[in-house]
User: Which sequence fits this backbone?
């Protein structure tokens, strides 16, 4: 039995879309589950729109989420000659033909189809015409001779049996008038040359699959197995596009979503295994199968992504979480000094409380990173006479402490609450504002113990 081989074949015409990441993930997991191989092919034949920056972003995105491919990246434009040779072979065998229709003729055919409210299908004008009738001023395209009778049947690994009337598949272009190959030709040739056994992609490619199978059959190539996975929709039920917010991996890494959490979310987006929600990497590979993929579109739910990320933040090894956090800060926020890093690592057990993202942890950590506290205007308004009096009393009492611990701080705070006829918030909130610059953040005891007596005394002495 042939070793399973899958591929992910994006075009570098924009940042990698979240739907593309899920397609790559499903291909990768399937090949790993079967002990096979997974390849990356960059389909860069659209020279005007293809950019190296997007190619690099695709490669880096897959690396970030933990998807690794075999060998070097397969670059489609390097194989153009192979694609053209196949087109000429089909032409020589009478399985393709030159079409001399002008662009105006094609537009007129499309216009008529639109008026009749029927799908446009090229009228096959040049299918059986002699080239002696060809106009001299038009460079022809080469069209594949599609079947015109009967039905084609696809045994899709996700969608099941799909039938299509052959006369609904037009004689599609395989070489443009400038001699460049089209997607359906290039993809078919590349998949054959790469030895692909399974093509797993979005269900918007179903019609392309029927076209590509005809190319395979015409050349007596072994047809791979096909699986068409439903597209991802927005929460409103619309097709997700690159223009939507949070549609690329960069959008998620910038806000501090961790790769393991996003990978787990994308795995469960349209796939299930029993009632299991959380999958580590080994489990993802072990349990992944085609049977678990649903047939309906899935909705991208950002709140669910936050929830998944929060789970990983709470349950991940703290050394690993710290490394993720520092890498995130250095990439998107700031370089954190070594001393502050040590404080953060020591305090991570509470800094991660209620945090849904690495950005939340970073914000919770800012009072440990920045020595100079900047109090926002709205928070400053809360520091009234009573609040400042409580701060001074607290400072006087804590300066006498030899051990700056929660056990020793609690009686001081409880005494201040009682003496000033207030509550815990009445003491904790002004202290938090003075020590961190914000009324929001970690618990006051955690803040006090993380800073230590000397730093607390210094920060409180600046209020008055």
Assistant:
């Amino acid at each position: 039995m042939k070793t399973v081989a899958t591929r992910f074949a994006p075009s570098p015409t924009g940042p990698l879309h979240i739907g593309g990441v899920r397609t790559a993930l499903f291909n990768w997991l399937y090949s790993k589950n079967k002990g096979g191989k997974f390849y990356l092919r960059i389909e860069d034949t659209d020279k005007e729109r293809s950019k190296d920056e997007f190619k690099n972003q695709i490669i880096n995105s897959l690396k970030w989420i933990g998807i690794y491919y075999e060998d070097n990246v397969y670059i489609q434009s390097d194989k153009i000659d192979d694609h053209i040779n196949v087109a000429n072979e089909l032409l020589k065998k009478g399985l393709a033909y030159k079409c001399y229709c002008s662009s105006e003729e094609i537009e007129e055919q499309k216009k008529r189809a639109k008026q009749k409210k029927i799908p446009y299908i090229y009228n096959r004008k040049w299918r059986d015409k002699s080239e002696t009738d060809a106009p001299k001023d038009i460079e022809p395209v080469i069209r594949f001779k599609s079947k015109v009778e009967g039905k084609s049947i696809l045994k899709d690994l996700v969608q099941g049996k799909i039938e299509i009337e052959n006369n609904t598949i037009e004689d599609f272009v395989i070489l443009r008038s400038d001699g460049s190959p089209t997607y359906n030709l290039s993809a078919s040739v590349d998949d054959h040359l790469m030895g692909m056994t399974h093509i797993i992609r979005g269900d918007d490619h179903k019609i392309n699959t029927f076209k590509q199978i005809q190319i395979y059959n015409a050349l007596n190539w072994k047809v791979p197995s096909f699986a068409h996975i439903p597209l991802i929709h927005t929460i409103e039920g619309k097709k997700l596009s690159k223009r939507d917010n949070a549609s690329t991996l960069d959008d998620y890494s910038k806000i501090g979503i961790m790769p393991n959490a996003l990978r787990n979310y994308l795995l469960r987006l349209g796939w299930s295994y029993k009632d299991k929600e959380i999958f580590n990497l080994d489990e993802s590979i072990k349990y992944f199968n085609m049977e678990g993929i649903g047939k309906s579109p899935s909705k991208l739910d950002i709140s669910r992504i936050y929830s998944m990320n929060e789970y990983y933040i709470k349950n991940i090894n703290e050394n690993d979480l710290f490394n993720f956090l520092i890498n995130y800060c250095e990439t998107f926020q700031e370089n954190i000094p070594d001393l502050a890093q040590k404080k953060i690592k020591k305090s991570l057990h509470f800094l991660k409380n209620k945090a849904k993202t690495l950005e939340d942890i970073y914000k919770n950590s800012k009072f440990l990173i920045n020595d100079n506290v900047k109090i926002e205007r709205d928070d400053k308004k809360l520091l009234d006479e009573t609040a400042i009096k409580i701060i001074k009393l607290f400072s006087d009492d804590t300066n006498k402490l030899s051990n700056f611990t929660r056990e020793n701080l609690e009686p001081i705070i409880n005494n201040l609450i009682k003496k000033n006829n207030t509550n815990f918030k009445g003491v904790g909130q002004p202290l938090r504002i003075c020590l961190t610059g914000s009324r929001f953040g970690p618990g006051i005891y955690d803040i006090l113990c993380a800073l230590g007596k000397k730093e607390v005394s210094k920060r409180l002495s600046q209020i008055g």
Summary: The longest strand covers residues 37-42. The chain has a mean pLDDT of 93. Residues 99 and 126 are 5 Å apart (CA to CA).
